[in-house]
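Now read this:
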Amino acid sequence: MAHPFTTFLLLFPLLLSSSLASNQITFWSQNVLNEMPQAISTKLSPLNKQDSDYYAKTISQNNFKADSNFCSVAKLSCFTLFNELVSGDKIRYNNPVASPLVSGDKIRYNNPVASPLVSGDKIRYNNPVSSPLVSGDKIRYNNPVVSPLVSGDKIRYNNPVARPLVSGDKIRYNNPVAIPLKNIDPFSFFRLSVLKEGNTMYLSNLKATLPYRAFLPPQIASQISLNPQNIAKKFPDWTKEAIETTLSYCNAAATKGEFKTCPKSLEEMISFSKTALGKNKLLSLASQSTKGSGNKLEIRNIKKFNVEKIVACHEMFLPFATYFCHSLSSSRIYSVDFVEPKTGAPVNTVVAICHLDTSSWSANHVALKILKFGPGQGEACHWMNEIDLAWIDGTGEKI
């Protein structure tokens, strides 16, 4: 665990520049017994009190629409990463200048070299391998799963909420719940029996694929309702479908034994976790880093946390930092130390959650497909990536 003074030094610039960040740090220290993970500390609000008061007042008005100034000052991502690809429509990636898709026009993404969109020409995004845009050909962006561009189809990237890929359906990349099995990381789910000291296993990709977005302060976040109409009105540059797909997770019925919400601020996340666990003091659990992702590593030490309930929070795809949090019964949580198999050199400490009861899961759940069993026929474990958080009762447990 980092020394408190070390953490203070890391966060000191935020304390100077943002009273809102200072408030968030104070709220954390009052409710959480251990230090704030670095991935969370980088998402603290950059707004000062004057800005926060102003936007809290204006965002409550019916005619409020997020503009570039608000998005820049609050460090939000107010433009959908990929808009529907239709004749004359606009394509937006990571908030570049959007350009109509018309014959001979140019598409510019993240300042690569722009190229006219003409028959047989190439489109270059973030310097991936370029491919001619011809009927039935494939487009490659940021090395996601490649799929033919067909009439009426949609391409969406960077971890929107996903569902199975079926004929005529939508294509979703980067940590989807369900895409063709051949394109899923086969090491993203595993059985509990694998977690044994001395075992070697491939670590799945722990890197976050979502664009950076800061938390909103509670006084602003409370003015935003998590319904498609409200978000589409306040953030008009996000597509309706992108919003609805993401919110389908938040608004879906809870599974057996699940208690869930989508907190819109760090404070709301902590308050929900306290309520769900029935405790006043929490411990936060997070993977140390992304080191070792995709590599074959050896398990050196395993720590099991002896708790009855867990709250797991996974970041969602909205203009501001938002998490999907759910309390998990019939689950176990572990901290696993990985080392290099040949040298024994430490690599990473990663948090794993194992769901022991899968009886209420869909038979099409990607975990069950990878592990090759049906609902209720076994447990499913997965790693927490760099921006995921788990919460447990802080009483009697030590990191």
Remarks:
- The radius of gyration is 22 Å.
